[in-house]
Amino acid sequence: MTSLHFAEMEKKERKIMVAVDESQESMHALSWCITNLISETNKLVLLYVRPPSAFYSLDAAGYNFSSDVVDAMEKYSMHLANSVMERAEAVCRDLNATNINMERVVGVGHAKNVICSAVKKLEADTLVMGTHGYGFFKRALLGSVSDHCAKHAKCPVVIVKQP
Amino acid sequence: MTSLHFAEMEKKERKIMVAVDESQESMHALSWCITNLISETNKLVLLYVRPPSAFYSLDAAGYNFSSDVVDAMEKYSMHLANSVMERAEAVCRDLNATNINMERVVGVGHAKNVICSAVKKLEADTLVMGTHGYGFFKRALLGSVSDHCAKHAKCPVVIVKQP
């Protein structure tokens, strides 16, 4: 605790939000965060965004999905959320970060909007996210969630690329 | 040193590069970095980018600038670099970060290219930069240095917005 003193003095409890999804990139961003940003005065918020539900989607024949199909998709989506959260917690365990102050949050909607709203609502101090190495066309088509959040989230944003 | 143990174990000497310029935003990014990222195992690299020199520029009448004018511009640009570095060091002092392991680097060229090259050449582990809150037209015209670096720098990039 010599030269670190200045930083320690300034540190209050900070909320670090990590956006996690099925990708390897987001797990890499999480481990970067644990290794570089998280300390005992911080709280880690794991945010997973489920896609908007399919109530208004149409099947191939132009009919609404039956409620059975919608239910099955909901169930699958919740299962996916749990599986991502469990994978994220495994990453924490692998880095011996077991006694971390952690919260799981699951949002529903379009990732870029939900992430920016969650930053505001939960008053996150820093947002950490991975970035998919999409090529030119896919990026042009889909836009980039990390680009959007870097511009619009109301806190510093860390973009972690897969090495 | 309780729950921090996991992170400390993982930490080697890391190089944190902060791109500084005349803007308040970049000084805010520097103080975020000192408060959140810098520890005694890290090295802080302050990078300032001077614009490319004016040898090929033309004055209003279409002539090359005289060597006197070029010299004066060079001198002014070096003076500006020094003044930004001094301001950055004042920010460190204000946060009591006086015994930080620090290096000053001045590059010449277009900011977005120089910053990405410097990350690669100096093997920075993290790049921290502010972002100018340009409006739509200025951003479309100038492009955004931080956008470019977030995409192309070969390390995690922290984009710190002025609150």
Automatic annotation (TrEMBL), chains A, B:
SUPFAM superfamilies: Adenine nucleotide alpha hydrolases-like
Domain UspA: 14-161
UniProt-recorded name of the protein: UspA domain-containing protein
Organism: Glycine max
Recorded name of the encoding gene: LOC100306535
